[in-house]
Structures are given as structure tokens and as C-alpha cells.
Write a structure and sequence with these properties.
alpha+beta, Sufe protein. Chain: A, 18% strand
Length: 149
């Protein structure tokens, strides 16, 4: 599989979509993610209110796949509960690892389904999962904070 084939219109569109590429005022948590293989570097900020992701945004730079993937994630997960967001992050990671291939099940990921074929191009996998892995760290911390209460 060639890299060019991965750059679908949707990925290019999301790479340019900067709706959620911004800072959040007073975020609940933030986390930095770095992919040295490609030079992708992002910082995620999340604002949580009553167990729901009130806002999710990112800053940083990187290749089209890392930027598009993070933009798709931000759009998908705003307004979701922390539990629901964690479930969808795991579904995305399972899709990229090739563990879940059922189209109907993956529909839930909306635009991010377009990254499915990245699983066939191992060198780009880290680009595609960077934002999601970084969010997983934040969500796990939120879950731990909830249990402490
Ligand atoms: Zn990259």
C-alpha cells in the first residue's frame, strides 16, 4: 500500500480544519504527545464538566495524518461523557491495530473511519494514534480522579 493512497480528500480536509486547533481557557487537564519517528508534536487540552467533555482542543504541528486524526477525534468526542469517550478511543485503537474490522461497528467513529487503512502501513500508525493515545492518558487520569472522590 502506498502512502499517497491514504491521503483521501477527507484526511486532507481535516488536516486543514483548524476549528479545534486552539487553546482552551482554564482546561481541566492537558497532555503533551510526541512521535519522534515523524516529528509529530501535539498538546491536547480537555475541559470536563459533570463527567462530560465540554471542550477538547489541540495545538502543535505534524504530518497531515496526525493533524487530521486529532481533528477528527476532537470533533467526535466533544459533548461525550468521559466513559463514552474512553470507549470510542479504545474502538479507534482496536481499528488501527486491525482487531475490529466490522464496518457497522466502526461507523460510530464517524470521519475517523477513513483512517482504517493506516493499519496496513505500520510506519504511519504512530501518526494516526498520537492524539488518541494522548487523550487516553487524560481520560484514564480523569477516571482515577473520579474514583478518589
Ligand atoms: Zn506523522
Amino acid at each position: 500500500m502506498e502512502l499517497q493512497q491514504l491521503y483521501t480528500d477527507l484526511i486532507l480536509e481535516y488536516n486543514k480544519d483548524t476549528t479545534n486547533k486552539r487553546k482552551i481557557d482554564d482546561p481541566t487537564l492537558s497532555e503533551h504527545g510526541h512521535n519522534p519517528n515523524c516529528g509529530d508534536d501535539i498538546t491536547l487540552e480537555v475541559k470536563v464538566k459533570d463527567g462530560v467533555i465540554d471542550d477538547l482542543a489541540y495545538t502543535g504541528s505534524g504530518c497531515a495524518i496526525s493533524q487530521a486524526s486529532t481533528a477528527m477525534m476532537a470533533e467526535l468526542l466533544q459533548g461525550r461523557s468521559v466513559d463514552e469517550a474512553l470507549r470510542l478511543v479504545h474502538l479507534f485503537l482496536d481499528m488501527i491495530r486491525g482487531k475490529v474490522t466490522d464496518e457497522a461497528q466502526l461507523e460510530e467513529l464517524e470521519a475517523a473511519v477513513s483512517l482504517k487503512d493506516i493499519s496496513k502501513l505500520p510506519v504511519r500508525v504512530k501518526c494516526a494514534v498520537l492524539g488518541w493515545h494522548t487523550l487516553e492518558i487524560i481520560l484514564d487520569r480523569l477516571e482515577a480522579m473520579k474514583k478518589e472522590k
